[in-house]
Write a structure and sequence with these properties.
With 101 residues, the chain is an alpha+beta fold. The protein has one domain (6-100). The chain has four helices and five strands; from the N terminus they run ββββααβαα. Strands 1, 2, 3, 4 and 5 form a five-stranded antiparallel sheet that branches.
Length: 101
């Protein structure tokens, strides 16, 4: 079995916060979520002019995958909604206990 080295392509011109930007799987822009990034072969990388001029940077998939960190985007959470959900859950459990007892 022949193992092909694969690469992610980074947009080396900028970041989003501390997050690197990666070439998206559908070749339609860039993403911070590495799970949505496209993987390239060495032959594909060698054909990219933007790799040669430094605006894009190829990274070995294994090297990047070993450094993935998942985080929660503060724009996706609401403490108020979370606490309300817990109260509702506690009320349901309390009613279930009373009906069992």
């Amino acid at each position: 079995m022949i193992h092909k080295q694969l690469y992610y392509v980074q947009d080396a011109k900028g970041y989003v916060g501390n997050s690197m930007l990666w070439w998206k799987k559908d070749n339609c822009g860039y993403v911070c979520d590495i799970r949505k990034a496209k993987k390239f072969t060495k032959a594909e990388i060698d054909k990219m002019d933007t790799i040669q001029d430094g605006t894009k940077r190829a990274w070995p998939v294994g090297y990047i995958d070993d450094r993935v960190q998942f985080h929660i985007d503060m724009q996706d959470v609401s403490h108020k909604q979370a606490m309300k959900a817990i109260q509702t859950e506690d009320q349901v459990q309390c009613v279930q206990k009373k009906s069992d007892g």
